[in-house]
TrEMBL record:
This is Zinc finger CGNR domain-containing protein. Signal peptide: none annotated. Residues 129-172 form the Zinc finger CGNR domain. PANTHER family: BLL6575 PROTEIN.
Length: 181
């Protein structure tokens, strides 16, 4: 079973910043994505408005996850706040366990279920480990599994190396040392 952080990560990663590839480029693709994850029923179909909310939610989450790098307080990104405000949920108690449940059904309900994963990830301790790659050209979401929660890049071999190489070159150039050919 996929946990809340994994599903949120997968949702954010439906847009590949580096490759400019969007898995949710149409309402039909949004419907398929939500259906495959059990967030909507077989007969539910997304409309253009649903896609706009989903995109706003996804990019708002990406912005919020940038704040998980420093561990300090940060403001909820405006786009995320607006998307969440349009996805009404209610608090329920089932067998004494509080949960957030969507007020509506269909695609809006599926997006509300996705939004309800935010406090669920916080409750299980994975929200603070959910980050986006610090490499500005990447922004891929990942779950920081390092012991001290200090991971900055989705991949040290690719994005970490790019960042460190750029920093090295900038230091060398600032020192006036010619770069090797």
């Amino acid at each position: 079973m996929t946990g809340p952080a994994e599903l949120l990560r997968d949702f954010v990663n439906t847009y590949d910043v580096e490759g400019d590839a969007d898995e949710l480029a149409s309402p039909a693709e949004l419907s398929v994505w939500l259906r495959e994850r059990g967030l909507i029923g077989d007969d539910d179909r997304a409309a253009d408005e649903d896609l706009a909310v989903a995109t706003q939610l996804r990019e708002g989450l990406r912005a919020a996850l940038r704040g998980n790098h420093d561990g300090g307080p940060y403001e909820v990104p405006e786009g995320l706040d607006a998307a969440l405000a349009g996805l009404p949920v209610r608090v329920t108690l089932s067998a004494g366990t509080p949960a957030l449940d969507p007020v509506g059904s269909g695609v809006a309900g599926g997006l509300a279920r996705l939004a309800a994963l935010i406090p669920a990830a916080h409750a299980d301790g994975t929200w603070s480990r959910l980050k986006v790659c610090a490499e500005s050209t990447c922004q891929w979401a990942f779950i920081d599994s390092s012991k001290n929660r200090s991971r900055s890049w989705c991949s040290m071999r690719v994005c970490g190396n790019r960042t460190k190489t750029r920093a090295y070159r900038a230091r060398r150039q600032a020192e006036g040392t010619p770069r090797p050919s």
